[in-house]
Amino acid sequence: MVTAVTTRVGRSAGSHAGRVHLVYTDESPGESGDTDILVRRSDDEGASWSAPVRVNDDRTRNAQFNPQVEVERTTGIVGVGFHDARRDAGTGGVGDTNGVPKDDAMYCAAVSRDGGAAFGANVPVSAGASNAAASNNGVQYGDYTRMAFQPGVLRPAWAMT
Predict the structure, then answer these.
(1) What band does 31 get if pLDDT is binned at 50, 70 and 90?
(2) Which of 8, 35, 61, 68 has its CA 20 to 30 A from that of 105?
(3) CA–CA separation, 103 vs 138, rounded Å?
């Protein structure tokens, strides 16, 4: 199952100018609860697409979801931000708010310096975990999530619940 599709066109002046980046969440196998963030790229305005490249670098069966993608206009570096439940084993600590596994998430980001062919290490950018259901404030994961990429600085914004 594929969800949360976002696209961006690279407007940098390099060899990847005009490249379209498609980022999405994929659950495989279906109904497993193990979702990953994947990116595909096109250099011909979407007529053909690359094979998917996995962004999240975890080895857990926990979910990553609601991705955003942005391309830095000066260098063409691709940034992807996403919610990540890899640290929620339900045993307490920075990734867990309530002792229940897989229902809390932190916000993470990763960058590609080669036009989206590969992504570097995932970096947690939130100070702690969120639990959308437990907050009971009507804000869901992904509401109000955006990114900006200024020269050399990826600036994600997300709602903490």
Answers:
(1) confident
(2) 8
(3) 16
